[in-house]
Amino acid sequence: MGILTSILVLLAGVGVFIAGMNMMGQGLESSAGSSMKKLFNKISNNRLAGVGVGVAVTAIIQSSSATSVMVIGFVNAGVMTLVQATAIIMGANIGTTVTGIIVSLKSLPIGEFAAAMAFVGVMMTFFKKDKIKKIGGILCGLGLIFVGLDLMSGAFKDSQELTDMFANMFAAIDFPLLLILLGAVFTAIIQSSSAATGLIIIMAGSGAVDVQSAFFIVLGTNIGTCATAVLAALGTNTNAKRTAFIHLMVKTVGTVILGALYWIFAPHVVGFFQSIFPNTPEMQIAWFHVAFNVCNTLLQLPFVKQIVKIATVVIKDKPSPAETQYNMHFIDDRLLSTPPIAVAQVKKEILYMAEVARENIRLSMSSLTSDEYVNREKIADNEARINHTYHSIARYLIKLASLNLSVSDEKLVGAYHHVITDIERIGDYSENFIEQTEKMKAEKISFSDIAIAEIVQMYNKVDNMFDLSLHVFEHRDFDSLDKVAQIEDEVDDMKADLGVSHIARLHSGNCDVERGTYFFSVITALERIGDHLINIAFSIKNPTGSQSKRTEINDMPNVNA
User: What's the gap between Cα 234 and its chain centre?
Assistant: First the structure.
């Protein structure tokens, strides 16, 4: 095989390897989406827990860079502190070593069987059942990883010229700092430390690079993987930039300290791994990678607060001149790289939007039924916030819909479109109530004490329904749907009864037509708010809301979202 052909085969192997790694990661991510949501929901200031989250998520999505970008998104959205982010990044550094261990299995006589899983996986994707398709995607990705490894190793095996070329190149730059720099630059270019480490492992197995030099190159790959996070931090807020800096600092400091120790004791370190994994340089490099990242985490984990303080000093707070006052609280485009997490964050943003709408209804109803001073600017500001959030979530949902979502997440995204519309319409009623209050004051009209008591009674019923509907939506509490429907029926009945009693007051002369018009407008609006609330609750069963609330609709599975 000519050297040019060998290089092309090598590049093809790298491409297939990365494609397989991405496919396996997407399959694992899709299968474990609800588990990842639970992990991130349990984030605390416990450093060990943060490291555990980082390890688990990175092992699932097969990319420390993706985890780092996700963390930057969380910090930019303001839902994660720098201390929490630092611990997760440290864990991600350990989780990314799983790929190296998988690659090292190439040294065992299982390569052909593992590669054959690509065929098995493809066949499984033809099944209709979503769970089987996901498993098929994972197996297909794993098989492609070994196909890529086989192509890479074959390129060296079939071309002594290629092996000699790389061996001479590494011999010419046989200086630790240059080898570390080579690893960093190569990884930054291909944007994958896993792929870079995999290629080094294959080279070592074919004799193109000795184990001692390979260890130094692997140290460099750990720095090069920070390039993705640094790029992701461009255009973010100050804390997100600090997160990227922390990622780079943790990697660099670890490489400097542990790399210097390895430089001093290189023969002993190499001898140690060779004694554990004799005649298998692939295993030696993979487990050196594990050891480095575990030791780096143990070394720096006690100093998380100090690391955060350094990042705060280096990257100072700056005013954000062009930021809108209505920033999103939970969603960020960087989270789109992990769709299950992005879907979970949308729910949090929707719940925030619902609470703002609820506050506006409370404020506007207070102005309508009492003489309390109501800050009209506060209500207008809340309404603007609701509208901005509505449009931002809608755009985000459109982006999510274009991604590779699981069946359950696709249905959630569809349901969320309807939910935010219901919330936005609820918010509009607060504006109507305020306008009605102002008109009544201008016309010197006020409700009787009986009418006010009836309106308050109906509003309290709707407010209780608000509580229960949001609880059902947040916790997917199917058991409480009947209770929501019952309260909605009570609201409907109350509207009818209040209408009858008010007509009686009109006939008896205890109320005039003008006040009656306003009264009917209020109770009709409250009844319609109840309609929107039941739509929100029943969105967990039927994406379009409550049109079929009395029938057993099982369009959406009972998943934790």
Answer: 18
**Alpha helices, DSSP H, located in 32-129:** 33-41, 47-61, 64-77, 82-95, 97-104, 111-124
pLDDT at residue 556, rounded to an integer: 41
DSSP code for 337: G
- DSSP annotation of 235: T
Rounded Cα distance between 118 and 27, Å, is 13
DSSP string, 388-413: HHHHHHHHHHHHHHTS---HHHHHHH
- The per-residue pLDDT for range 98-125, each reduced to its tens digit, is 888 888 887 777 767 878 888 998 899 8
Orientation angle between helical segments 130-157 and 193-206, nearest 10 degrees: 40
- Here the tokens at position 409 are 């997440």
Whether residue 470 contacts residue 357, with contact meaning beta carbons closer than 8 Å, is answered with no
Q: How far apart are CA 529 and CA 488, in angstroms?
A: 10
* Dist. CA 540–CA 470, nearest whole Å: 11
Contact 290, 201 (CB under 8 A): no
Mean pLDDT by groups of 10 residues along the chain of 561 residues: 81 87 78 68 77 86 79 78 90 88 79 83 86 87 87 83 82 88 88 84 88 93 87 80 91 94 93 92 93 94 93 79 64 84 91 94 86 76 92 93 85 93 93 86 81 90 94 93 93 87 66 71 92 93 62 40 42
Other beta carbons within 10 Å of 294: 15
Going along the chain from its start, the domains and CATH numbers come out as 3-314 (no CATH), 337-538 (1.20.58.220)
Joined together, the tokens standing for residue 88 give 């997760």
Contacts of residue 321, Cβ cutoff 8 Å, sequence gap at least 6:
none
Closest listed residue to residue 321, CA positions, set 231, 234, 378, 237? 237
Contact call for residues 20 and 144 (beta carbons, < 8 A): yes
**Lookup: tokens for 453:** 């008591």
**34 exposed, middle or buried (CB, 10 Å; 0-12, 13-18, 19+)?**
middle
